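Give me the fold.
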Amino acid sequence: MRPAPHQPFRPRPLPAGAFTLIELILVMTILVVVIGILTPKLKEFFAGRALDSEVRRFVSLTRYGRERAVSEGVPMILWINAKQGTYGLRQETGYTDRDIKLDEFRVDKDLSITLAKGTVTSAVGSAAAGAAGRAASALPGIHFSPDGFVQKATSVSAISIQQNPRQFVWIVPTADFLGYEVQSQNANSPNQRR
């Protein structure tokens, strides 16, 4: 029996639709470059979302405070503790024994609250202080009277919630002093309104 003649190696043809290793490496390189470029932008986008969410929550709380003051006929205080990064809504001390609708919020760990210079402070206890025997500490706040107006003389003139020195939003009283609104984000001081 004769051995079969030696035939040269012929690679099998690639099936239709397959990729070569070089093509796969090229695509992966392009993906890494695109992700490297987009990551800082996505990080900034999501950081901006936290700021936007906190601002919306604060402005909503000012509206809720005004509505509660009018509907319950009791002055309300939206107190702000900028050092601890907390704020909350409660009835003014002395009108009821205890406020069962107490609200307290802590800003996101990457955000901070700053009050406008010359802010008036008044004896306003935090929610925890009110529940623990009405011990009052001097905290600035926004005072809503039962007639629906913000008490201009005792309320904060402007609040800034900021992510970093470049990302911040001012919250200022409306022209009619019935509430607070978001100021244009391009403004550097609380004197320029939308």
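The longest strand covers residues 167-173.
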